Amino acid sequence: MESYLLDWANLLLRWIHVITAIAWVGSSFYFVFLDSSLTPPEDPELKRQGVTGELWAVHGGGFYHPVKFAVSPPALPKHLHWFYWESYSTWLSGFSLFTVSYLWSAGTYLIDKSLVDWQPGAAIAVALSFLVVFWMLYDGICQLFGHRRNGDRIVGALVAVLVCAASWLACHWFAGRAAFLLVGAMIATAMSANVFFWIIPGQKKVIAAIKASEPVDPVHGKRGKQRSVHNTYFTLPVLFAMLSNHYSFTYSHPHNWAVLIAMMFAGAAIRQFFVLRHGWKLGRNRHPLPYALVGVAVIAAVVWALRPAPVAMNSVAAGAGGTGAKAVSYAEVQPILAQRCTQCHGAAMQMKNVRLDTPEQVKLHAQAVYQQAVVAKTMPLNNATQITDAERATLGRWFQGGAPVQ
Asked: Of the candidates 333, 327, 329, 236, which has an alpha carbon nearest to the alpha carbon of residue 275?
């Protein structure tokens, strides 16, 4: 019953998390586009009011004319929309999902005893420290170097080194699938913390100054913009880390930390292309195509590096019932299932409501066994029961032979 309820919690939290993430990423991307596309106002009245940029756009059958006041408007409007619940809701739902999916069953999902034989409590504490320590170091880097000349480049380089170090540690301390998610959660925590500790407080100080008829310190806008720009470059790396759990060939690779770093770098490079292309259209910067080409080249290099060896491909083809493949009986498959699968899918425990300890149940879930254990190789999770490639090939031949249970 616990497994069933956890599955529902996972599904509902994932649903909420995706919805709120779409709202947050969508608004973030829109404002980056808006800032990059604004042009100086032509209307003298707008200039008099202090407008520094405007944009005309058409969408959904209507015309829109957003304007930007770099420091403050002449007067505060009655209704002012704040963009922060998109961020907070995304983090809260994401952390809840991480708790349900990984921390609740740390011994199964978080720990890989072939790497570090943690006690569950220790593993959870170290995993949570990634979120806190990364934010503290990242925030310290921003405060120490962000205001200096060429500060953005210094901050970018140091944060890149920090992310690489964290990725290496996570992949050497935790199960690959959990490590990728942990790095994504770590960066996403910094993104939401940027909103909570810097962007929103700065905006509140600006509004308080306007209400008090006091001069507005432009530093709050500069700091908020700096952290907002960081967030937009973090977005694609985080999305890759979050989606990777569906693709075991990434996190199960012996050098999974290098795969993670390379793909996050590619995401950041591609995001740079989209950020700069708006300025290029207005003649503000050179064409950003090289950034996109670099990102695509890195992805292509990773695809090539992870390609299956020819011998392994032939073995899988034979194991999946290729020409000349030997038929496999249930008597040959049953010991494999008993040794590798029934610890989590037997009478005592039925993870995902799947049992593999009777012929009838094996026949019912044969398709899932083939997909997860032979094709995707996501099961057993983290290969905790040490199933071999030969055993996976045997399961493949059995399924392609009709999955007999007699």
From this structure: 236
